[in-house]
Design a protein that fits this description.
The complex is a heterodimer. Chain A is α+β, with helices and mostly antiparallel strands. Chain A contains two helices and five strands. Classes of the chains: A alpha+beta, B alpha+beta.
């Protein structure tokens, strides 16, 4: 199973195996990762699963669609070039080793 | 005897959990001929299906026993990308940051609803507390006109039921659904004439890419919001009271420290959520656990079973106040996760905060409970409680 490293707001790192087809948000929620709220459940409708994609694999992540780019306007932490809503990133074998960092605040 | 799973049977209404255990262990992808659909019962399989909406579509309906002409016109019965656009129109009204103004009114409603129980030795929690509290909260949240609350609740509870004999909706259920549509149509017409700064006014006049929403979308989404608000919130409160009445230690801890109610609510959502089963429809052939499912087959996602899956939660059949369960399916999950999660959590907490001040010690009176006859939901129709 491909793995993702989640970095919680306090710096704690959690490496988790994510079944292919699950969103990066889903696995964080199912495993109780800190720093994510995902209020809407994954409809790209709330901007509370904001994360920063770190490291070399950032380029391998499919680009954000228009609705995600628009929703990113609503994040409360700083929006950066590597900001994404992780409900919109589906896990695939190519993304094994992905590193995502959660901001200090989601709402 | 060969195993069967009939979500219409009163035995499943009363206690689905032994059936779920057999499903998970022996038939993780099971064809229920009584329900005419596949049943997925393991946590990981349900979550995978929820994430794979391209294969497991909601567009043919999400209720186990769907209401006529509803599929395709509500949030729960639409797939992305249309779903996400519709959800974007209503999500903001249900976000934590936008519900702040309702916190004090909801606490006030809780106080006023609990107060008359002060002198009572025994009462029906569903009628005497949950129903009254729920309609007032929903009316405050949606700004519905006062006067019809009792009838609206009665119809909402009826329309989610199904007939165990015919395994379909009966005429009384369809009539309740029709009544609710007429009621919603009246509210929508009123709001269009006199727009307010509220959800139904905004939604009934909203546009996506310059197009007004389809009239059926406006009507049935509003109908569903009212139904879900009244029935789901009330149903869950019945389950929560049932757990608190059974779990004396957990209740005493919550009475002593009401902050623990938040944990008790999460564990109840996992332990025996009222939203037990929803369905999807396959858009292509799909193989799972050696079973070949066909395009067009319906698939039941048994949330109530995934929440008791020992592969996800150790000692799943124990109600554990300290568990703090993560990723439970008590509100469903993924794109179709319940819209009302935040208002439900804050309402139930406020309700029991006040209820426990008036009735701190209580026990169940009925040995057997009358469970709602429903293939989708599970909650008691009446819950007699006595002061202990």
């Amino acid at each position: 199973m491909p793995n993702v490293t989640y970095i919680e707001p306090n710096g704690n790192q959690r490496e988790i195996d994510v079944p292919a087809g699950w969103s990066v948000m889903q696995s964080a929620m199912s495993n109780g990762v800190e720093g994510i709220e995902a209020e809407c459940g994954g409809s790209c409708a709330c901007a509370t699963c904001h994360c920063y994609i770190e490291g070399d694999l950032a380029a391998a992540v499919p680009a954000a669609a228009e609705n995600e780019l628009a929703m990113l306007d609503n994040v409360v932490a700083e929006r950066k070039a590597n900001s994404r809503l992780c409900c919109q990133i589906k896990m695939t074998p190519e993304l094994a080793g992905l590193v995502v960092r959660f901001p200090d605040a989601q709402s | 005897m060969s195993f069967s799973f009939d979500p219409y049977s009163p035995a499943v209404d009363a206690d689905p959990f032994p059936f779920y255990k057999t499903l998970r262990d022996e038939h993780p992808c099971f064809w229920s001929k009584e329900a005419n659909m596949w049943v997925l019962s393991r946590y990981a399989d349900i979550v995978t299906a929820l994430n794979d909406w391209q294969t497991f579509s909601s567009a043919k309906g999400n209720l186990m026993t769907e209401l006529p002409n509803r599929a395709g016109a509500t949030l729960g019965t639409t797939d992305p990308p249309r779903h996400d656009r519709l959800r974007g129109l209503v999500q903001h009204a249900f976000m934590k940051r936008n519900l702040e103004s309702l916190v004090d009114p909801i606490k006030q409603i809780a106080r006023e609803t609990a107060a008359p129980l002060a002198g009572q030795k025994q009462f029906d929690f569903v009628t005497d507390f949950a129903a009254k509290f729920t309609v007032r909260v929903l009316w405050a949240a949606l700004g519905l006109p006062l006067g019809d609350e009792a009838t609206v609740r009665e119809k909402a509870v009826l329309m989610v039921q199904s007939d165990p004999a015919t395994r379909s909706k009966g005429p009384e259920h369809i009539a309740a659904y029709q009544w609710m549509q007429d009621y919603a149509a009246g509210v929508i017409a009123e709001r269009r004439k006199n727009p307010q700064n509220d959800l139904i006014s905004h939604f009934s006049m909203a546009e996506i890419d310059g197009d007004r929403l389809d009239e059926r979308e406006v009507l049935l989404t509003t109908t569903t919001l009212i139904m879900a608000g009244v029935e789901s919130l009330g149903g869950f409160m019945g389950m929560f009271a049932y757990n608190m009445a059974n779990e004396h230690d957990a209740r005493r801890q919550c009475v002593a420290n009401p902050e623990l109610l938040a944990d008790a609510i999460e564990e109840s959502l996992r332990f025996n959520t009222s939203a037990q089963r929803f369905r999807r429809c396959l858009t292509k052939d799909h193989e799972l656990h050696g079973q070949k499912m066909k395009e067009g087959d319906f698939v039941c996602l048994a949330y109530g079973s995934g929440n008791r899956d020992e592969r996800q939660y150790p000692n799943p059949d124990v109600y554990d106040l300290g568990r703090k369960p993560k990723g439970h399916l008590g509100f469903g999950g993924s794109v179709h996760a319940c819209l009302g999660t935040t208002i439900a959590r804050l309402s139930v907490k406020a309700a029991f905060d006040e209820f426990h001040k008036v009735v701190p010690e209580y026990r169940r009176v009925q040995e057997q409970l009358p469970w709602i006859p429903s293939s989708t939901f599970r909650s008691p129709l009446r819950l007699e409680l006595a002061r202990a």
